[in-house]
Amino acid sequence: MKLNLGKYVKTTRFKTTLWYTAIFLLLECVMGILIYVFFRLALYKELDISLTKQADNIYHLVAESKVDLNNFKPDSIYSSADELVYDLIFEAVTFNPNNTFVQVSLDNKIIFSTANLYKKQINLPLSTAANVKLLTFKDPILSDHPIRAVSLAKGEYRIIVAFPVLMINQMLDKFVELYFFIAPLFLFLSIIGGALISYKSLSRIDKIIKKTDEITTQNLSEIIEGGEFNDEYGRLVKTMNEMIKRIRTSIEYMDQFTISASHELKTPLTILRGEIELALKSNKTPEQYREILSSNYEETLKLINVVNRLFYLSKFDHSLIKLDKQKISVPLLIKETLQPFKDLSEEKSLNLVYNYNEESEQFIDGDPDLLRRVFVNLIENAIKYSNEKTDIVVNSETDGENVSITFTNDCEYISPESLNKLFDRFYREESSRNKGLGGIGLGLSVVKSIINLHNGRISASYSSEGKITFTILL
Fold first, then answer.
1. Contacts of 430 (CB under 8 A, 6+ apart)
2. Which percentage of the chain shows pLDDT scores above 70?
3. Of 205, 233, 268, 339, which is most buried, counting CB atoms within 10 Å of its CB?
4. Separation between Cα atoms, residue 235 and residue 228, nearest integer Å
5. Counting Cβ atoms within 10 Å, is residue 69 exposed (0-12), middle (13-18) or buried (19+)?
6. How many CB atoms lie within 10 A of CB 421?
7. Distance in angstroms (rounded) separating the CA atoms of residues 422 and 444
8. Which residues are within 8 A (CB) of 101 and not within 5 positions of it... i.e. 6 or more apart?
9. What's the CA gap between 24 and 177, in Å, rounded?
10. Of 247, 261, 312, the residue nearest 444 (C-alpha)
């Protein structure tokens, strides 16, 4: 149980629940504080308005009575000025409960105070900026709670109306008690809500993990479900499916390489081994040794060619090849490349032709060594697969911005499916004429990689006249 709990604490579900609960509680605390402050300010504001109106009302009742309170003389009705003032303000004091303490002064002489002041004088400072002063003070004799008071000074009168904030404090205390009562409930609900949200939101991750665990090299054709959703999980599934597709393609390349490379490397190695063993078994004449060495040399060249092409592709895949760009004359580069193949093409009864407009300037920025390798591969392929006594035509032209180069030759029929795969690694068009010509299908893949490195395009097309054309646009 401890082990499972320890694992759960480290999961994203637990962390999500914890964050959700923490944020929820933080919002709850902030909301509680804001509500508390709001109600406290609202209650004090309401009390201040009530006290201010009461003081102003008392002033008007006393001032408008036109009674000379400074020279008051007792009579049969009022024995003191205090009784007279109380009679004047009786209604104001009676009908407003927020006036526990009332004190009225005239020319700094108290002419009335409520009985609960116990003959005690309330001394409050007056504001120099206004005739109304609101403040809170403490007096243990009058009340165990702070007292909120308003001091109104108008003319010769100064009126103080005060009220203990007991009711406000009691209401705020009840609010705090209620808050601490419901806080644990909100905590429990936040934990449950966070757990449900994390479980619901991460349940698709479990499905992705489960399906990913089931995928091996034997079933890479399967896909992870959920890629149709346009959210984070959907994008994750799409990315993983694309990754699986790339892995499947890489494994297919590896399988093709294992079969093709093993076959192509086995043949020259077997020939080399057989000829070396034959040379070691008995003495040979110098001419026979020369023939054996010549044959070994040819087989070694084949091995080097295969290894070099694999090396080039590996460098392309790891972005290790850097372009040495120069201003290149396309016609000049093509003519230099074609020159060594003249004799070889004539031996196979092939006519090698290059057409271009001598008046047009066909210059590009590129790596001459890499582009020469492109032209060599395409010419070698054309000579190798062309029908006898046909033309191999190379053409280059420009539209002012791009240079188009084509290599055309007669060959056996190529299906549209095969045409689309010519640039794939390790792909070879198998036909009765092409069997035994060698190669592991890397030449055109190298060509495409070099053209892509130059930000160009290459394509292949097969015409109804039995001609295949490779078109390069640079």
1. none
2. 86
3. 268
4. 9
5. buried
6. 17
7. 7
8. 113, 114, 116, 117, 122, 142, 147, 149, 160, 161, 162, 163
9. 20
10. 312
At residue 297, the pLDDT reads 85
Q: How far is CA 32 from CA 167, 185, 450, in A?
A: 20, 14, 68
Buried b (16+ CB within 10 A) or exposed e, 184-222: eebeeebbeebbeebeeeeebeeebeebeeebeeeebee
Alpha-carbon span 54 to 51, nearest angstrom? 5
Q: How confident is the model at residue 5 (pLDDT cuts 50, 70, 90)?
A: low
Q: Is 261 exposed, middle or buried (0-12, 13-18, 19+ CB in 10 A)?
A: middle
Q: Residue 439: is its pLDDT beyond 60? A: no
> Angle 286-317/443-453 helices, nearest 10 degrees?
40
Reported for 237-246, long-range contacts at CB under 8 A and 24+ positions apart, including other chains, are 237/208, 240/208, 240/212, 244/215, 244/220
Tokens read off for 246: 């790339």
Q: Which two tokens stand for residue 325?
A: 């760009």
Give exposure, 352-374, as e/b (b: 16+ Cβ within 10 Å).
Answer: beeebeeeeebebebbbebbbbb
The sheet carrying 403-410 orders its strands as 351-356, 391-398, 403-410, 467-473, 457-462
Note the Cα 87 to chain centre separation in Å.
Answer: 79
Torsional sign, CA 331, 332, 335, 340:
negative
- Rounded distance between C-alpha atoms, residue 325 and residue 350, angstroms: 33
Q: State whether residue 412 is helix, strand or coil.
A: coil
Counting runs of H as helices and runs of E as strands, what totals does the chain give? 12, 12
Whether the predicted pLDDT of 433 surpasses 70: no
E strand or H helix at 98: none
CA distance 171 to 157: 35
Query: Residue 354's pLDDT is what?
Result: 92
Using DSSP, state whether 189 is helix, strand or coil. helix
Helices (H), 152-229: 166-214
The pLDDT confidence band at residue 431, using thresholds 50, 70 and 90, is very low
User: What pLDDT score was predicted for residue 469?
Assistant: 93
Residue 38 vs residue 192, higher pLDDT? 38
Residue 458: beta bridge partners?
472
CA 308 from centroid of its chain's CA atoms: 41
pLDDT at 319: 64
Average pLDDT, integer, range 193-209: 78
Q: Give the integer Cα–Cα distance in Å for 195 and 154.
A: 65
pLDDT digits (tens, 9 = 90+) for 401-412: 899 999 999 988
CB-CB contact of 371 with 450 (8 Å): yes
The count of residues in the chain is 474
